[in-house]
Amino acid sequence: MDQLTFLTLAAATISAAWRLATPLIFTAVGEVFSERAGILNIGLEGVMLVGAFAGFAAVFATGNLPLGFLVAMLAGMAMGLVFAFFTITIKADQIVVGAAVNLLGAGLTAFLFRTYFVSTGRGINSAPSIHIPGLSDLPFLGDAFFRHNLVVYSTLLLVPAALFVLYRTSFGLTLRAVGEHPKAVDISGRSVALYRYGAVLIGTALAAIGGAYLTLAHSNQFVEGITSGRGFIALAVVVFARWSPVGAFFVSLLFGLFYALQLQLQAQPQLAIPYQALQALPYVMTIVALILVRSRTDTPRMLGIPYRKA
Questions:
Q1: Is 226 helix (H, G, I), strand (E, B) or coil?
Q2: Average pLDDT of 170-189?
Q3: In whole angstroms, what is the distance from residue 75 CA to residue 69 CA?
């Protein structure tokens, strides 16, 4: 392999890594908000599926991409309200409710897709790539960084915005306190339940956008199970990133690189590796990452524990 071919493949891999990491970035950053408030939402897979289907259905009907993302976000927040009602108001077990949300999302989207769309065979016009004048024509860097769609670029704004909200606002300070010392928040006169509801809604809204990206900006069609376990990987990303939006961004990029590598390796016929083993690479690395992160000293103290007034 000559140097030019290597650089071309490297640029393509980096470009694909960022694109493939985008749904993980949205979902993981959203889950950081939820877990910082003490709510463990393992139903991200179901929320992403609902967002992916709702966004696709909206654009299929109207042809309006921004509306598709808005509908996806609202659908994700509706799922978040269901999850929050059972876990915060009723104080049901968060793991059980999250599993139910996953089943609901998978079943509901499969039913609606088979009922209304499976016979159409039609796709939608997905978000176009934006070629930045001058920069997109740069050798190597242009292909790697400057030929993406607007949703991919928006991840660069999402992380600073999340940092600002969590660490520079009264809302973020109180939200983090709810995950550490909810009784102190309650004594101060603020509603623990209200802040936890807000955190869950932020988390599910961003997860739904991550799901909608798959149908509106990555492909142009919805298929059953299109998320392929990304919701569960996002949960691992949050732990590996130690509940930090910046960490979630870079760890998501790492997993995006694993996705991109397995696609590139599948395209190399000289490699005598079963494609199933290559497809399993991102999931194997998820397990490895969780094994490596043994000391979870940054875990929110009340994560997964319902708050009950004394």
A1: coil
A2: 95
A3: 10
